[in-house]
Design goal:
With 305 residues, the protein is α/β, with parallel strands linked by helices. It is built from 9 helices and 13 strands. Strand 10, helix 6 and strand 11 form a beta-alpha-beta unit. The termini are far apart. This is Sugar kinase. Keywords: Kinase, Transferase. GO terms for molecular function: kinase activity.
Length: 305
């Protein structure tokens, strides 16, 4: 599927790559000469942009993904994932190779990610013509904070298409994240590195153009800032045992955007996000899976007070 064949509900920029998953006995992992990993060590396609695109497509939204990919086995895995899930992909050449990471996953589902930064360059850019063409076909654009998305922000703002971004574990100070935070209409981030989530969220809204800011807090739920009001969103009980937190934030973002694009109010969107995030924690990191629309709506209706 290509963007020219029809309108796009959500264009996802960046964040394509592969993860190698290693289940370890504990985190932090004590030093030892070696460990025996009985569950196996597996490499699969799926980084933040891939997981957001996967979540959106599973909810029935027409999704297209743009990023740089290498002509390498990792790139082939990413292309195959999109092909198998019916997600449009515009893959531009990346001579440095496809992004990759190693995720160490503990018994409680927490993870430690080791990112290979050699497979990107600060000067990597998307061609402006490609950006404008894909943006013109879309209703919404989700921008990951990977390179070369930072260079794309001025063009994206100029198109007038609504934007969202995920700042992940931003500490509220790192200047790299700030242009993304101030450019987006919807901002997601983790509360993990924030001493005062409300202060950071309000600062984003006051200085930028965000209509909604969401800070996820794992098992403690999430915070939603919308229309000037901060609301605590309770965590949703997972429908099965928790095995892995990898991709939970991406699932939350995808489901929240689904709600927004179907006209739901912010609180309902956040409930969708909480349901999808809880579901993602039940999916082993060794496979890429996402909640579908019927299950999302059913669980949201069952969870709603």
């Amino acid at each position: 599927m290509t963007a020219q064949e029809g309108a796009i509900d959500v264009l996802v920029l960046g964040g394509a790559g592969v993860d190698t998953i290693v289940y370890v006995p504990e985190l932090p992992l004590p030093y030892a000469d070696s460990y025996h990993i009985d569950s196996g060590i597996r490499t699969r396609a799926g980084q933040t942009g891939d997981f957001v695109a996967l979540g959106l497509a599973a909810l029935g939204l027409r999704t297209h993904h743009l990023d740089l990919l290498g002509d390498d086995p990792e790139g082939d895995l990413v292309r195959a994932l999109h092909r198998e899930r019916g997600i449009g992909l515009t893959a531009l050449p990346q001579p440095a190779g496809t992004k990759r990471a190693v995720n160490l996953v503990g018994p409680d589902g927490r993870r430690l990610s080791l990112y290979d930064t050699s497979r990107a360059h600060p000067d990597d850019r998307f061609p402006e013509e490609t950006l404008r063409r894909l943006a013109a076909a879309g209703r919404h654009i989700h921008v990951t904070i990977t390179q070369p998305c930072s260079h794309a922000l001025p063009v994206l703002i100029e198109t007038g298409v609504p934007l969202s971004t995920d700042l992940h574990d931003w500490d509220g100070e790192n200047p790299y994240h700030e242009p993304f935070a101030l450019a987006a209409d919807v901002v997601f981030l983790s509360a993990a590195a924030l001493t005062d989530p409300e202060h950071t969220m309000r600062r984003i809204a006051e200085r930028g153009r965000a209509e909604a800011v969401v800070a996820t807090a794992g098992a403690e739920g999430a915070y939603l800032l919308a229309d000037g009001e901060l609301t605590r969103i309770p965590a949703v009980a997972p429908p099965a045992p928790v095995v892995d937190s990898n991709g939970a934030g991406d699932a939350f973002a995808a489901a929240f955007l689904y709600g927004r694009l179907t006209g739901e109010p912010p609180l309902r969107c956040a409930l969708y996000g909480a349901v999808a995030g809880a579901y993602a924690c039940t999916v082993p990191a060794t496979r890429a899976g996402a909640i579908d629309r019927d299950e999302l709506l059913e669980q949201a209706d069952r969870t709603r007070p």
